[in-house]
Design brief:
By secondary structure, the chain is an alpha+beta fold. It contains ten helices and 19 strands. The chain binds flavin-adenine dinucleotide. Flavin-adenine dinucleotide binds next to helix 1, strand 6 and helix 9.
């Protein structure tokens, strides 16, 4: 049983892909690690948000992300073909239930203490530079959680914001990107369906006022993930906006399903197997860290001495409203520096996953889940190393890199 009033070495807030990997990595190194999650399963967007496939692991046919995340997914598909499609440099499509189980199993095997059903709502500072404890609430009421080092893996950068660290949120530029509620449709007769391109064409011809969409085949034959809803112009940090988005997107899901059933061969006896329990949030806060990774770094495949992960996902900015947005593939991978996951303000806080320090273009690339696996592992090992140092910013990045390489990470750029 998890004890909440103990002093942990590392406390990770947020059990998405990045947070789960961070907790596994810190615990595996020997840190007493607590993983706090407001819902009741791990995987975040990748499971509760039904976001699949898990991309992008490589470029030009070469892997640029390795490490424990890649191994977990390779082993998942080797165990059971209905758990995930084949691993590739693009990335596999996983069954969300298998992925939840696998992440939870790996976390528990690594001796991570998991605390579900708990929201972190604030922090108490020891001095302007250090977090003393987290303020949390659950059905138990209000309570405090203490650790030596904290990892903000909330996606929204909640902990950094509570600690007063400045952030960018693009409401005044291109805008926070629109939200999407994903769904899985099952009972599709794959002997009758045309290929995915043809389904997309049929969708475009018949979608009427529905949004452009994308289908990704599920590892279970006869099922597919659908990304066909959009809630533009809303703020992912406001409960009222999130409510409006959920209601609107759920309605859109049913309209889309009826159209698909009516117009796409093979969908006649299909049904909605699941609409995601968690709304798909693309962008909220981008925390300002010691180094803000920017569009030029990403476009030019920049390398950094303090590299802790690489990424090569396309720049993919969804519009805040219905028009605009930007999408382009990269020519080579870029490095993500350690300075982008630590801040100038707080000495015992590391961030990981989609809230790390980046401009909107860089964020739209690195927010994907393959970099999330790598960034999580890096943050977890960095937190473990930091437990015996006074400041997360003064650890030996060389030691961190050596540990990452030991677990199979790829830090050097691919040869051109
Ligand atoms: C519609 C959509 C399509 C996408 N398509 C793709 C794709 O095709 N391929 C791809 O790789 N990526 C895709 N992405 C991006 C990707 O899914 C996410 O950016 C990524 O999963 C973020 O991972 P994370 O671990 O940083 O955050 P999350 O997955 O958001 O995890 C954060 C976790 O923290 C918890 N949490 C948050 N706040 C608190 C709090 N205060 N207290 C306690 N717990 C808290 C949440 O419940 C959640 O479990 C897509 C995203 C969306 C929305």
């Amino acid at each position: 049983m998890v004890k909440i009033n103990e002093q942990y070495d590392v406390v990770v807030i947020g059990g998405g892909i990045a947070g789960t990997m961070a907790a596994i990595a810190a615990a595996r190194e020997g840190s007493r690690t607590l993983l706090v999650e407001r819902y009741s399963a791990l995987g975040g967007m990748g499971t509760l948000g039904l976001v699949q496939p898990i991309t992008t692991w490589g470029i030009n046919g070469r892997y640029i992300i390795g490490g424990t995340g890649k191994r977990i997914l390779e082993e998942l598909v080797a165990e059971d073909k209905s758990a995930a499609t084949k691993m590739s440099t693009y990335g596999p499509c996983c069954d969300a239930e298998y992925l939840k189980m696998e992440l939870e199993k790996r976390a528990l095997e690594s001796k991570v203490s998991i605390l579900y059903h708990t929201w972190v709502r604030g922090v108490k500072l020891e001095n302007p530079e250090r977090i003393r404890c987290l303020l949390a609430f659950s059905k138990d009421g209000d309570f405090e959680i203490s650790g030596k080092v904290y990892i903000d893996a909330t996606g929204d950068g909640d902990i950094c914001a509570f600690a007063g660290i400045p952030f960018d949120s693009s409401e005044n530029e291109l805008g926070q990107q629109s939200m999407t509620l994903m769904m899985v449709i099952s009972g599709i007769d794959r002997n009758k369906t045309p290929d995915s391109d043809c389904i997309h064409t049929i969708w475009d011809r018949h979608r009427g006022s529905c949004h452009k969409g994308a289908l990704f085949w599920h590892p279970r034959r006869g099922s597919a993930y659908f990304n066909v809803t959009k809630a533009p112009g809303l703020n992912g940090l406001k409960a009222s906006d999130l409510t409006e988005a959920a209601i609107s997107c759920r309605r859109q899901s049913w309209v889309a399903y009826e159209l698909l059933k009516q117009h796409v061969p093979g969908f006649e006896n299909s049904y909605i197997a699941e609409i995601a329990p968690a709304l798909g949030i693309r962008e909220t806060r981008r925390i300002i860290g010691q180094y803000t990774l920017c569009r030029e770094d990403v476009d030019n495949g920049r390398h950094f001495e303090d590299v802790i992960a690489r990424a090569a996902c396309p720049v993919d900015i969804h519009p805040r409203n219905n028009d605009g947005g930007e999408y382009y593939a990269l020519k080579k991978s870029y490095a993500i520096p350690y300075r982008s996951i630590v801040t100038n303000r707080i000495s015992n806080l590391i961030m990981t996953g989609r809230c790390i320090s980046s401009d909107q273009a860089a964020h739209s690339s690195l927010r994907r889940m393959a970099p999330g696996f790598a960034l999580g592992e890096a943050a977890g090992i960095a937190a473990h190393i930091s437990t015996s140092s006074k400041d997360v910013r003064s650890i030996s990045v060389k030691d961190l890199q050596e540990a990452l390489l030991h677990y199979g990470a790829i830090l050097e750029p691919e040869e051109s």
